[in-house]
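Notebook entry, structure prediction.
Reason for the run: the old model in the group folder had no record of what sequence produced it. Starting over properly, with the input documented here first.
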Amino acid sequence: MSDVKKYFVTGGAGFIASTFVAQRIAQGDEVVVYDALTYAGHRENVDWIEAPGGNLEFIVGNICDGEFVNRLLKEYQIDYVVNFAAESHVDNSIASPGEFITTNVNGVYAMLEASRNYYDGLDGAKKDGFRFVQVSTDEVYGTLGDTGYFTEETPMKPNSPYSASKAAGDHLARAWFETYGLPTIVTNCTNNYGPRQFPEKLIPFMIKRALSGGVMGIYGDGKNIRDWIHVEDHCNGVQLALTKGKVGQTYCFGGRAEKNNNQMVHMICELLDKKRPRADGKSYTSQIEYVKDRAGHDFRYAIDDSKAEKELGFVRKYSYESGMSATVDWYLENQDWVAAVTSDKKAA
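New structure, fully documented this time:
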């Protein structure tokens, strides 16, 4: 029996999922990327991946189209479904919550039903090995005070339309395991950073604003805290959950790198001061301004991922310092990518 596995990766043209796809292709697996190419998904995230032997297929489609998904699962005889697809920006969810319910709730339901139909038709080793992974966020747990950590046992208490919709998807995945026996696994991760993140997100946004001479606006007083994990470490965790995790379980992944927004933006400025100094000799920190806080802005996220470390052997390869330095380097070297994906979405 071949060790090559066939993955169906939704949202595969997005920031995190495309990194997961690249890792799988590098290991010789076959991947079907399925993406609706909405605001945060773009072909540039996949085009760079070298896929010898035709083991990467790109299909444009929406996860709400369960019938189409089911046909694809059967056609490609998929071993693993990994659902990264999601509307994911909190600010956008506040402005247009309906889109988040459609994708993150109805879409997950459609994916689970399509997968259940496919799974029920499998037998033998193919059925025993099948997995459905629902990739989610630590934001489903709500907010923390100055102390404490989220774990897999933390009750869900979402505070934004985005996090509420993701929590609903997590509940659905668990219910489809408990009710129908579909072998699902849920992963919840803290804030990701790294190459190819859509430019509206904090790190690439601040880099772009700094380089353009614009205002680097920080919400409120800048004291909101996030735990940061490099995207490659997160994707390694998802793969471990898929291959070593127990069905019906949830696994959390964190970066052990808590930083408030002031610290994060000042780190970006410090790195840019060294790597791409301003012509006038001033620090990029001179461009920082504080702006009105986001509605429902959670104070602090932090994850205790001891379960993943003990049960899956999860380890992080990147420190915050090395990961951030490499990330800033990538954006400095790939401003054409930033311009391309930004103009592409404006045109759309």
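Summary: The chain has one domain: 6-199+229-259+297-319.
The old model has been moved to the deprecated folder.
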